[in-house]
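One thing: mind reviewing this one?
=====
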Amino acid sequence: MILEYNEARDWIEKSFDVDSDSTDRFNSHFELTIRILGGLLSIYHLTGDELFLKRAMDIGDRLYLNFNTATGLPLAEINIKRKSTSGYR
């Protein structure tokens, strides 16, 4: 189990990049929040490893712009690389 954790941590540290070409599309705000942000915050809570908190804060900051609406409710989709949104205003 330690081996898998170390491999995953190493991948997040060295390869996890929200600015890569593969992220140049719109994604569901909900899915990014529960899967990526939630996963990073969960592993930070379990380990206390600041790497996971740093990555979560980066994603959270990018998702925050999706709340810039008249109602304060997030738009449906976001491109976290270009920091642009899509959905009903």
In short: Residues 25-86 form one domain.
